[in-house]
């Protein structure tokens, strides 16, 4: 499976130091999502461009498009990383998720491998929003480790992957044994998210903070909907990236 990819950066005159691979949510695509993503602004510097693209001129941003697959519930073709019955209750009928999720994990890990030809794994951040982060996190669980960090917005933990983690099924590797250091993880979720309820984000945080292979920071915002909060949420992501980019220099 070959994914359509929208990549931008590093900016002219800047050396490529890091890569962020970021997966859009259900129903979007790489072009639409990347355009909207770079409209979100931090609070500083005032009177200057302050999107993530502006603030990180050495990053290569990679936005893959999800496959177009059949939706069981709506009987149509949709852009989705895996099929799901309900976004409000994202782990309802998990059997619908498994095949698409496995295919998307393979696709994402292939993209990671391609990006490793440009920078080492320890300089690559893997993230996404909503179903995109559910897929990115699943790819982390089922693949090799050593990323610079993980970034998740408005998301949850797919029950199929949690089951693999708990039961040690084939395809879910022993993370702790493979990690030499805990991986930093940023999670952001708004209280007024009407697509994926904030309770799902809280549950994801509660699950992950019990695991030794990741160090999770969870940011909960009063508003922002099913998106990144502005400007505080963008500020928090900027701080996370800067802190963990410096650690890998």
Descriptors:
alpha/beta; 8 helices; two-stranded antiparallel ribbon
Describe this structure in words.
This protein is an alpha/beta fold. It contains eight helices and nine strands. The strands form two sheets. Strands 1-3-2-6-7-8-9 form a seven-stranded mixed β-sheet, sandwiched between helices. Helix 4 links the parallel strand 6 and strand 7. Helix 3 packs across helix 4. The longest helix is centred in the middle third of the chain and has 18 residues. About 4% of the residues have low confidence.
Provide a count of the helices: 8
**Fraction in helix:** 25-40%
Adjacency order of strands in the biggest sheet: 1-3-2-6-7-8-9
Strand content: 15-25%
N-end to C-end Cα span = 34 Å
Count all strands and give the number: 9
Structural class: alpha/beta
Mean pLDDT: 89
Uncertain segments are 169-178
Shape label: globular
The Cα radius of gyration reads 17 Å
Order of helices and strands: EEHHEEEHEHEHHEHEH
- Sketch the major β-sheet: 7 strands, mixed
Please describe the topology of this protein.
Layout lengths: L4 E4 L9 E6 L6 H8 L14 H4 L3 E6 L3 E4 L4 E4 L18 H18 L8 E6 L1 H12 L6 E5 L5 H9 L7 H4 L4 E8 L7 H11 L5 E8 L10 H16 L2
Parallel strand pairs: 2-3, 2-6, 6-7, 7-8, 8-9
Antiparallel strand pairs: 1-3, 4-5
């Amino acid at each position: 499976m070959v994914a359509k990819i929208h990549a931008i950066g590093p900016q002219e005159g800047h050396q490529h130091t890091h890569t962020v691979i970021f997966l859009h949510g259900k129903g979007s695509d790489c072009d639409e999502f990347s355009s909207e993503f770079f409209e979100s602004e931090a609070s500083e510097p005032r009177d200057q461009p302050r999107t993530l693209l502006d603030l990180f001129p050495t990053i290569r941003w990679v936005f893959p498009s999800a496959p177009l697959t059949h939706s069981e519930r709506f009987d149509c073709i949709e852009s989705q990383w895996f099929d799901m019955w309900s976004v409000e209750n994202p782990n309802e009928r998990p059997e619908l998720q498994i095949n698409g999720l496995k295919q998307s994990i393979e696709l994402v890990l292939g993209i990671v491998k391609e990006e490793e030809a440009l920078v080492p794994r320890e300089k690559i951040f893997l993230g996404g929003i909503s179903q995109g982060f559910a897929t990115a996190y699943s790819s982390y669980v089922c693949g090799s480790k050593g990323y610079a960090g993980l970034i998740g917005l408005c998301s949850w933990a797919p029950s199929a992957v949690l089951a693999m983690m708990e039961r040690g099924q084939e395809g879910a590797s022993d993370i702790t044994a493979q990690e030499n250091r805990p991986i930093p993880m940023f999670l952001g979720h708004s209280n007024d998210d009407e697509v994926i309820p904030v309770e799902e984000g809280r549950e994801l945080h509660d699950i992950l903070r019990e695991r030794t292979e990741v160090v999770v920071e969870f940011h909960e915002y009063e508003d922002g909907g099913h998106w990144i909060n502005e400007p505080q949420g963008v500020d928090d992501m900027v701080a996370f990236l800067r802190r963990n980019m410096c650690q890998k220099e």
